[in-house]
Amino acid sequence: MPVNASRVLDEYLLASIHAGDRKAFELFARRWQKKLLGHAWRLLGGDVEAARDAVQEGWIEIVNGLSRLRDDRAFPAWAFRIVSRRCARQIGAAVRERQLAAESTIAPGDQSSPETASDDERLRAAVRALPKDQRAAIALFHFEDMSIAEVAVALDVPAGTVKTRLMHARRKLRDALGGDE
């Protein structure tokens, strides 16, 4: 179906939904389920179950907020943003779980060798010296093993912005640590 025809159909279905047509909502939800699921799947790194959960939670918010949507043409961006926020919450929860798991595996008496401790401290100090946005990108990408897409969702910025922040942060870290690696 051509893009304009698809948009017109969506606007017609939304008008019918606002008028109380349940069948229009069912058709509309079927049309948008795949799109929203694909979006969540990409943001969550291919995790189908997590994507389904995010979209299901997103639909609750969409249904509750649909009556407040003033311009039906804004639905796509609005719906994708809702699902993006749901994905960001899931990513944040996963990060917190990883942090708790990592903290629970470190024994109180564990200590590194003096050489490693000094290198670790230099790295921590260099990361702390980065601007906040670059520090967040580095931490999520390298320390939390998140993908570019996951970092973009977590920071609520485009993936290209994440890549740029990582590039600048790596350059500053390389200069601060005095190495080419």
Describe this structure in words.
The chain is built from eight helices and no strands. The chain folds into two domains: 3-93, Orthogonal Bundle (Rna Polymerase Sigma Factor, Chain: A), CATH 1.10.1740.10; 112-177, Winged helix-like DNA-binding domain superfamily/Winged helix DNA-binding domain (Arc Repressor Mutant, subunit A), CATH 1.10.10.10. The longest helix is centred in the middle third of the chain and has 31 residues, at 75-105. The chain is 78% helix and 0% strand. The radius of gyration is 22 Å and the shape is elongated.
Low-confidence stretches: none
CATH top level class name of the largest domain: Mainly Alpha
Q: What structural class do you assign from the helix and strand content?
A: mainly alpha
Give the overall average pLDDT: 83
Number of helices, where a helix is a run of at least 4 consecutive DSSP H or I residues:
8
Radius of gyration: 22 Å
Q: Which range best describes the helical content: under 10%, 10-25%, 25-40%, 40-55%, 55-70% or over 70%?
A: over 70%
What does the main sheet amount to? none
Number of domains: 2
What series of H and E elements makes up the topology?
Answer: HHHHHHHH
* CATH architecture descriptor of the largest domain: Orthogonal Bundle
Strand content: under 5%
Terminal CA distance? 50 Å
Strands, total number? 0
Taken from the alpha-carbon principal axes, the silhouette is elongated
Going by CATH, the homologous superfamily of the largest domain would be RNA polymerase sigma factor, region 2, helix turn helix motif
Write down the CATH topology of the largest domain.
Rna Polymerase Sigma Factor, Chain: A
